[in-house]
Amino acid sequence: MPTIAWETRQTNSIAMAMVLILLGSGESVSQEPTGSAPSLPLQQALNLQPAINEASDPSVLLEDPTDRDPELENFPEAINDPMWNWLVGSAWDSSLELGINGGSGNSESFNISGGFDMKNETESTVKKIGFKYINNKSNSLRVAHNARLNLDWERKFATSTVSGIRPSKWSWFVKNTYQFDEFRPFDLRIAVNSGVGYKFLDSEIQSLKGRFGAGTSKEFGGTNGQWIPEALFGLDYRRQLSKKQHLESTVDYFPSWEDYADFRVVTDLSWILLLDAETDLSLKLNINDQYDSTPTGGKPNDLFYSLLLLWKF
Q: 174 and 187 in contact (C-beta within 8 Å)?
């Protein structure tokens, strides 16, 4: 037993001596010779490590310095937003509509009508895309076949007041229309118009907007293949009838600048009833009338009406 106690005391003495040697070596290392570069404390060296890692990161080295320019943060929304935001994401309010009916027996019929609408509205602009398609058959004979594509762009104006900048009732618009109709004396009609718009009414119950402009139209595959200059007078009206139903109406009048007896009128009227608020499913009754004062051998007026299911998303 005395031998074991002596060995334990000897082991403790050796351990204490090694600790003293290590502490003495640490102090000698910290004493820097004259003319050598000063060493940094351990904590400062650790603080520099994130900066070293950031500087060596390739993604940081390739970063565009203008992305951090504070002046660019105040640029208009159209400049800051990526181009792909115009067509994808929640920036667009979209809807699909479809109506089908038919019959068989002594006579056969199949009618289909559908389309889609897309709208993107910001504080400065409104962009709309609308497409409508109709294909009706009776006894295996096609009796109606047409399609219409509308591309609309509107720039809102603003007025400066003492309290700040507020939206103006005036706006500038560009309106493009592409129309195909198998039973018209042309294959395709293109109309391009631009002008100014004005809001007469703008509330949650009803809204009324007028527009006036000028442009040109051309019929491809018909007897007259020239660009015809024309004016544009239009109205958009919306009326909320109740919590679940509202009316939408659009009228566009296109007289020729050369002869006001040569004109076109396009009227669209819709009654929309909300069926399910959770899925945003509605019932839509649509009436579309297209009048052409120069039908070139055909009837001047075409009237289409349809009952459709409308789904917004």
A: no
Residue 272 included in any domain: yes
**Quick one: DSSP state of residue 51?**
H
Range of the domain at 210: 78-312
Structural domain tally of the chain? 1
CB atoms within 10 A of CB 182: 12
Residue 232: CB atoms within 10 A of its CB come to 19
Q: Catalogue the E-assigned strands of 139-262.
A: 141-161, 164-181, 188-202, 206-220, 228-240, 245-255
Specify the higher pLDDT residue, 313 or 72: 313
The pLDDT of residue 22 is above 70: no
Whether the pLDDT of residue 113 is over 50: the answer is: yes
Specify the higher pLDDT residue, 27 or 115.
115
Q: Mean pLDDT score of the chain, rounded to an integer? A: 79
207 in Cβ contact with 201 (< 8 Å)? yes
